[in-house]
Amino acid sequence: MDLVYYFIDLLANFDQxxxxxxxxxxxxxxxxxxxxxxxETGLVVFPFxxxxxxxxxxxxFCGAGLVDLTLVAPVLVAAAIAGDALNYAIGRGCGAxxxxxxxxxxxxxxxxxxxxxxxxxxxxxxxxxxxxxxTFAPFAAxxxxxxxxxxxxxxxxxxxxxxxxxxxLGWFVGDLPLVRDNLSRxxxxxxAISLLPLVWSGVSKHWRRAQRVxxx
Length: 216
What we know:
Blueprint: H1 2-12, H2 14-25, H3 28-42, H4 51-63, H5 69-101, H6 103-127, H7 133-143, H8 148-173, H9 177-180, H10 183-213
C-alpha cells in the first residue's frame, strides 16, 4: 500500500521528485527520465505515466540550470523512438498470433489496417501529444502491419517534435514568475489540455451515435 501512495504522490508532485533526483543523482537522473519515456511509449500497461508534464518540467529545470538540455533532450528522443519501436514490434507479433486463433481479431485487423493505410503517418505523430493514445498508437500500427520504414520515419519525426516542443516550451517560459510560482497549476493545465482531444473524440462519437438513432 505504501508503494501505491508513493506512486500517486510521484504523479501529483513530479516536479518535486525530479528536483530531488537531480540533486541526489545528477546526470544519472536522466536515465530515470529516459526509462519513464520508454515505458510509457513502449509498454501498453503504462499509459498513465506523466509524459507531457514530465517533458515540460525537464525543460523548466534545464532553463534553471539544474540539468543540461543538450544532454537530456537527445536521450529522451532516443527513448521515445525506442519505446514506439518496441510497441510496434509487440503489436505486430501479438496481432499475427491472435489472428491465427481468433476470427474476430482478424476482422478488427482489417479495419485497423485500412485506417493506418490512410492515416498512419499523421496518427503516429499526433498520438505523441495525446495521453493514452501515445501508448496504444504504435501498438495498433504494428497490429495493422504498417510498413516498417514508413512507421520509423514518422516515429522519429514524432519523437523529435514531442520532446523538442515540450522541453523547449518549459525552457522558454519556465523562468517567468507566473510559471515559476504556479508550476503545479501549470502542470495540471498541460495535462488537461493534452486530454482535450480524447474528450472531444468521445463527445463527438457519442453525438454522432445519438444523431443516427434519433427519430426523424
